[in-house]
Amino acid sequence: MRHIFASIYNQVLVQIFIFYFFLGTVLDIGRVVSGISALAIFAGAYVAEIIRAGIQSISKGQAEAARSLGMSSTQTMIYIVLPQAFKRVLPPLAGQFISLIKDSSLVSVIAITDLTKSGREVITSTFATFEIWFTVALLYFLLTSVLSQLIAWVERRLAVSD
After folding, report:
1. What's the whole-model pTM score?
2. What is the number of other CB atoms lying within 10 angstroms of the CB of residue 161?
3. Which of 97, 136, 154, 159 lies 20 to 30 Å from 115, alpha-carbon distance?
4. Torsion angle (degrees, nearest 10) of CA 91, 96, 101, 102
5. CATH number of the domain that 107 lies in?
6. Is residue 21 within 8 Å of 109, Cβ to Cβ?
7. What is the pLDDT of residues 112-142, one digit of tens each?
8. For residue 3, pLDDT beyond 60
9. pLDDT tens, 84-110?
């Protein structure tokens, strides 16, 4: 299992390097745009797959019933399929967004100032390694736990209609 996670982080890192060192040089794109673009494309692929799987998980009978009631394909998607799919994709989407917060620390390798890079800069001036990394870890924990709590609240609100 550790090998899978290491592979995912390597993929993000390679994409960041490609965007910065290759596309950034060829197209004259800055560090920030390269880092954001690499993370956006990486996360976008996962989000698209999660949404696709959520839509496909809805029974064909739901769409057929809506069509038999005279709804158009667009109405069927908006009023029948997507609300049900949203409930199903919320937990994996939350996990993906939490992973994106953690993956954002990788942009520090191309000298974008983020939480991790700021921590490194403070360490070089204060030599308080343990305290700074503990603070950085605590801040990442706070960011991800607030997002987790928010998603849990949304899931509870949506569960009321079940």
Report:
1. 0.78
2. 7
3. 154
4. 110
5. 1.10.3720.10
6. no
7. 778 888 888 899 999 888 999 999 899 999 9
8. no
9. 999 999 999 999 999 898 888 888 777
> Which pair of structure tokens corresponds to residue 67?
């069509």
126, 132 contact by CB (below 8 A):
yes
- Which one is predicted more confidently, 10 or 84? 84
- pLDDT at position 4 is 55
Distance CA 7, CA 119 (A): 25
Structural domain of residue 72, as residue ranges? Answer: 2-159
63 and 76 Cβ atoms separated by less than 8 Å: yes
3-state secondary structure the chain: CHHHHHHHHHHHHHHHHHHHHHHHHHCCCCHHHHHHHHHHHHHHHHHHHHHHHHHHCCCHHHHHHHHHCCCCHHHHHHHHHHHHHHHHHHHHHHHHHHHHHHHHHHHHHHCCCCHHHHHHHHHHHHCCHHHHHHHHHHHHHHHHHHHHHHHHHHHHHHHCCC
Q: How many domains does the chain have?
A: 1
